[in-house]
Amino acid sequence: MSAGYRLGIDIGGTFTDVVLLSEDTGLIETLKVLTTPADVARGFLEAVDRVLAGARLGPASLRHVVHGTTVATNAIIENNIARTALVVTRGFRDLLEIARQTRPDLYDLFCDKPAPLAPRDLCFEVTERIDADGTVLAPLAEEEVAPVAEAIRSRGVESIAVCFLHTSGESPRCWPSNVPVCRCPRPAMSFRSFASTSGAARRSSTRQSAPS
């Protein structure tokens, strides 16, 4: 059997790094190319092509490819994110503000917390409720959705995160057609709802920065 290789690629804000590892010999090849922010796939493919050419290998030699990126993390740190609206189950508008009630200083009422990725004036509630086992306690109030969609449309929103409690179901389809909508792909397997909601907000706010 011919030698197998593993490929690891990390797309950073400035450079895209690649490591090629031979499973048989442990030989490692490394390469660094410039990241291409307008289309990070170009830098990704250039790195793959160059490291394989340098090792005189073809794509069929690869058994595993692992990919990571800090593009979205950099976008959040630099506040280079989309103007994001959050739509949640009624009663949960302040979920991102409250978070897990953690503060840098527990007894300092005036400490500065990181700004939420969806500001409070762009957080909207609609009536609906599903419990933890999937039982519908209150169906979605369709008549509330259109006014929320209109408010979002009028405020220059660039991305929408929809995160209803205990559900990964389809979101309403009346959102502005020119604005990407990100819903929770599935309820997070963690205590309470902050993880799911903040994850949806992160994904939504960085859609313009992160590779798809």
Question: Could you please describe the fold and organization of this structure?
Answer:
The chain is α/β, with parallel strands linked by helices and 212 residues long. It folds into 2 domains: 65 residues, ATPase, nucleotide binding domain (Nucleotidyltransferase, domain 5); 127 residues, Rossmann fold (3-Layer(aba) Sandwich), CATH 3.40.50. 24% of the residues lie in helices and 25% in strands. The protein is built from 5 helices and 10 strands. The strands form 3 sheets. It has a 4-stranded mixed sheet. Strands 6-5-9-10 form a 4-stranded parallel sheet, sandwiched between helices. Strand 7 and strand 8 form a beta hairpin. It starts with a strand and ends in a 7-residue tail after the last helix. The mean pLDDT is 86.
How do you describe this structure in short?
The protein is α/β, with parallel strands linked by helices and 212 residues long.
- CATH secondary-structure class of the largest domain: Alpha Beta
Mean pLDDT: 86
Gap from first CA to last CA: 35 Å
Number of strands: 10
Q: Structural class, judged by helices and strands? A: alpha/beta
Low-confidence parts:
none
* Number of structural units classed as domains: 2
Helicity, as a percent range: 10-25%
Determine the number of helices (DSSP H or I, runs of at least 4 residues).
5
The amount of beta strand, in percent, is 25-35%
In order across it, which strands form the biggest sheet? Answer: 3-2-1-4
